[in-house]
Amino acid sequence: FCRVYTPDHSYVTIRSRLSCRVGEILALVREKLQYSEDQPVLPGNLILVAVTSAGEKAVFRPSDEAVFTTLGVNTHLFTCEPSELESLLPLPEEIHWTPGDSKLHDMSAEEVSNQLVVFDWELFSCVHEVEFVCYVFHGEQSRWRPLNLELVLQRCSEVQHWVATEILQCQSLPKRVQLLRKFIKIAALCKQQQDLLSFLAVVLGLDNPAVSRLRLTWEGLPGKFRKQFQQFESIADPSRNHKSYRDLITSLRPPLIPFTPLLLKDLTFLHESCKSFHGELVNFEKMHKVAEMVRIIRRYRSSQLAMDTETSPSHLQTKAYVRQLQVIDNQNLLFDMSCKLEAKDT
User: Which GO molecular function, any one, fits this protein according to its record (predicted)?
Assistant: First the structure.
């Protein structure tokens, strides 16, 4: 399901395949607009446009495919006539932020971490091992795009921005300290459940410069939590080729969710440091190494993760919240918010 906005920021919701062509998306939008009371006159020649939170626009061709996976964290699809292209603006909530209490205050860290793990597992389970190879070896030239893998990478970025957004929107110092504690606890629970994707995404979100500079907030954190976060930072430390992370993941047994960007980094290094062919001869040593990495990915999913099936109202509310995170991805705006909370040292 996806929202497609019009120039006045009203929208229609369509259901579509990830691989759908732009022409098919526009046909679905046109059909929805026919029955919309807000749109008494059906537009003529529609185009599909991606608009970022910074106001940048990209117009898609009718033959383009899989546009959903090309969107950034806060990039939305708009449809309009060509003459209306210049008038398209980002959604108001992406330009102006509203301070206030987070829904997260009313949710338990256990519930949120469980929902993060379940959703990450759903996304990771849909990624075919060949998608990793195609992503690195062929990129945009491949016959088919690694759509499910791109969704996992989007999710990783989204969780990082979510952590920063929630903390920086909180105006009360005591509540901000509570949120900091809760995020560290969420990271610990994700690590305990072997979801290293959300674990490291939360840690990297807390390491965002706009969050890490909040001296008063971090000083309010109990020593036990500060020490725990330092341990988490050491796992995220990229020195010695991510040794701490590699030691951790080697010690775990499946099922587990790896930090996907590092898998792609390893595959990219292997691909770019070794030629696939020597003259007309295939470099089988390289192919064996690639195959071993594919087997490792397969091994991560060799056991099934136990999925949570609870249906209480609070559970469903948390599930909806985790799957539709509202985030700010503009780093300049995040830094401005940070400085309003705690002014720069003079």
Answer: guanyl-nucleotide exchange factor activity
- All residue ranges of the chain with pLDDT < 70 are 35-44, 94-100, 139-144, 309, 345-346
pLDDT at 346 (0 to 100): 40
Give the per-residue pLDDT at 329: 86
Helices (H), the chain: 22-34, 92-95, 109-125, 129-137, 147-168, 173-192, 196-206, 209-212, 215-219, 223-236, 239-250, 260-273, 284-300, 313-323, 331-341
What pLDDT does 287 receive? 93
pLDDT at 98: 67
Classify 2-93 by CATH class.
alpha beta
For 98, phi then psi, to 5°, come to -115, 115
Query: Would you call 28 exposed, middle or buried from its count of C-beta atoms within 10 A (0-12, 13-18, 19+)?
Result: middle
Domains 2-93 and 103-341 belong to one CATH topology: no
φ and ψ at residue 39, rounded to 5 degrees: -125, 75
Residue 43's pLDDT is 56
Concatenate the DSSP letters of all residues of 294-330 into one string.
Answer: HHHHHHHTSSPPPPP----HHHHHHHHHHHT------
Q: What is the pLDDT of residue 91?
A: 83
Spell out the domain ranges in the chain. Answer: 2-93, 103-341
pLDDT tens for each residue of 163-189: 999 999 999 999 999 999 999 999 999
Best CA proximity match to 325, nearest among 165, 168, 197, 192: 165
CA distance 299 to 92: 45
Q: Which helix (H) or strand (E) holds 78?
A: strand 76-80
For residue 278, give Cα distances in angstroms to 5, 225, 287, 289.
51, 53, 13, 16
* Assigned superfamily of 103-341: Ras guanine-nucleotide exchange factors catalytic domain (1.10.840.10)
Distance CA 273, CA 276 (A): 10
Residue 11's DSSP bridge partners are 5
